[in-house]
Specification:
Blueprint lengths: L19 H5 L2 H20 L3 E3 L3 E10 L7 E10 L1 H6 L15 E3 L2 H8 L3 H20 L4 E5 L3 E6 L2 E6 L1 H7 L5 H7 L1 H4 L19 E3 L2
Parallel strand pairs: 1-4, 5-8
Antiparallel strand pairs: 1-2, 2-3, 5-6, 6-7
Helix pairs in contact: 2-4, 4-5
């Protein structure tokens, strides 16, 4: 059973005893779980299905870019939105682009993720849960975090703001309109969602204390 979002609302510092599995797994094994999870999320986005990972959701939403001959281009844009309970509890800034309420958000399919890497389902589920607990602790402690999702992008925490920068190949692939490339080239606001090496506001070189997940 998926962890309840309220388990990620931490009133006190996280007890290391709650991360028993992460201590037993190797870094390679943890990254394997998240590689498979990211792959699963991307495949769901390609099918235009939103995915709730526990602390928030990934989705593809219709958007408008200021570009093109008519001045506006319709595109399909990937987004990540923190769960509103998480956002309110940790006093984080609201995202500019939101997932429309009519879009149904599917939970992670732990069975499918586990089968893709030949792990047992409870291991995959607990690994994901404990990693997200660690992320919640970073939210509680206002730490700096870069959370890498393979072939998706980088979820970054700086101060009171959480932002998802997507890799360009993901952005182009999930767009079914064919307008994304000219939109990125013509609209600087759209281009801001792309994860460039060291050039984004949030994927820049950070303080020495920046946590990098899932490593």
């Amino acid at each position: 059973m998926a962890a309840d979002v309220f388990s990620y609302l931490l009133f006190e510092p996280l007890d290391p005893k709650e991360l028993n599995l992460l201590k037993d797994l190797t870094t390679s094994e943890i990254c394997q779980v998240w590689w498979a999870t990211s792959k699963y999320i991307r495949e769901e986005l390609l099918e235009k299905r939103a995915v709730d990972i526990g602390i928030g959701s990934f989705a593809v939403v219709p958007a408008h870019a200021t570009a093109g001959e008519d001045g506006v281009l319709d595109v399909d844009r990937p987004v990540f939105q923190l769960n509103h309970h998480i956002q309110k509890f940790y006093k984080l800034k609201e995202p500019k682009t939101k997932i429309p309420p009519e879009i149904f958000e599917y939970p992670l399919d732990f069975q499918e993720i586990a089968e893709s890497i030949y792990f047992r389902v409870p291991i995959v589920q607990q690994c994901i849960h404990e990693t997200l607990l660690f992320f919640a602790e970073a939210l509680r402690g206002k730490k700096e975090v870069d959370f890498f999702f393979n072939r998706l992008g980088i979820l970054s925490l700086r101060g009171q703001e959480v932002i998802m920068n997507f890799f360009d190949d993901c952005v182009l692939q999930v767009d079914a309109t064919g307008n994304m490339l000219p939109a990125l080239l013509g609209d600087s606001e759209m281009l801001n969602m792309i994860a460039f090496r060291g050039k984004n506001n949030f994927t820049r070189c950070s303080e020495d204390g920046c946590f990098v997940l899932p490593r």
